[in-house]
Amino acid sequence: NIFPIHSCCVTRQGKNFLFSGPSGAGKSTIAELSADLNYQIVDEEQVIISKDDTNQYSACGWGNQMLASQAPIQAIFILNKNEIEYIRPMAKKHLAKQLIERHIDVVDSLLPQDLLANAFTIASAIARTIPGYELHFRKSPDFWKLIDAEFPECEDCCFITGCIAVRGEMEKTVLAVSQKADYCSCDIGGMGRRTGLVADNFE
Description:
Elements lengths: L1 E11 L2 E6 L6 H9 L4 E4 L2 E6 L5 E5 L11 E9 L4 E4 L2 H16 L5 H17 L2 E6 L5 H8 L13 E4 L6 E4 L26
Parallel strand pairs: 2-6, 6-8
Antiparallel strand pairs: 1-2, 1-3, 1-4, 4-5, 7-8, 7-10, 9-10
Helix pairs in contact: 2-3
């Protein structure tokens, strides 16, 4: 099964990151900022999500670049332009709804009923497998620091300078804090592979 979607796709550290949203949400901006960091842009406008024989999802370009990629999808981000940068985990049902809407952007709403039903099935399967987030960002590459906090690159220990990630107790929202971090959360026992300071309730 394949699933076309209105989304930018960036390959970084061997993983694909999808940045999705309607026209004007900032997909091209994300692609431009990421290209400036020498990350590979699979496509800045449309991609096709597919699943291989090992049930791993990947994405290939289907818009401007049309690049092929077998890198696994690490996460899907729904874009929101904002002066305050943060990421917020999405409920699976909300991610599935966004995936359907962005799918319809590409294939049009006049799908036969059987294909539309199949699209709902695929979107639900993707949302159950791949984590989704709201990404609130401004025109700055700093949003990658938030992603690093959620998906740190380190294996054992490292030194990272950037925004410290904390998560609010009620909404579990990852916020950017204007402070420097010189250590990795590998040094923080029981807190998982996170970057910077981690609140006591951080799951």
